[in-house]
Amino acid sequence: MPQHLLITGANGFIGRYAVRAALARPETRIRLVRHHGAVTAPAEDRVRVVRADLADAASVAGLCRGVDTVLHCASRVGGTEAELRAVNDAGTAALVADAQRHGV
Fold first, then answer.
1. Contacts 24+ apart (CB under 8 A), 79-88
2. What percent of the chain has pLDDT above 70?
3. pLDDT tens-digit profile of 60-85?
4. pTM
5. Is residue 59 within 8 Å of residue 93, measured between CB atoms?
6. Which helix (H) or strand (E) holds 20?
7. Nearest-CA neighbor of 41 among 27, 31, 28?
8. How many CA atoms does the CB half-sphere of 90 hold within 13 Å?
9. How far does CA 62 lie from the centroid of its chain?
10. Is 89 helix (H, G, I), strand (E, B) or coil?
11. 49 vs 27: CA distance, rounded Å
């Protein structure tokens, strides 16, 4: 049975390694979350890129539907305190709430 994995921050330092590890398991289906810009994603049928902004709770809603596991590797490292909190605090809380809502 395939495992469905959601990875945030897949282009970041830790996220890249998480994607590689997931790709080493042929039964894993991967959903990569990206806010903006290009995504360096493997051209494989089992990898899907979705757009979402962790600073926007509405765009996070539903990300975890159909997912077995969430690897949250995304974070904001520069900007104002409000911008940092919007992603790192509120965005993480929204992602956790969505995971709970969908039984992850």
1. 83/55, 86/54, 86/55, 87/54, 87/55
2. 92
3. 999 999 999 999 999 999 999 999 99
4. 0.89
5. no
6. helix 13-23
7. 31
8. 14
9. 12
10. helix
11. 18
The architecture that CATH gives domain 3-101 is: 3-Layer(aba) Sandwich (3.40)
Domain residue ranges of the chain, discontinuous segments joined by + = 3-101
**CA distance linking residue 41 with residue 48, whole number of Å:** 8
Amino acid, res. 37: G
* Residue count of the chain: 104
CB 19 within 8 A of CB 40: no
Contact 19, 48 (CB under 8 A): no
pLDDT in tens, 30-41: 988 877 666 666
Q: Could you tell me the two tokens for 79?
A: 């900007």
Q: Compute how many other C-beta atoms are within 10 angstroms of the C-beta atom of residue 92.
A: 16
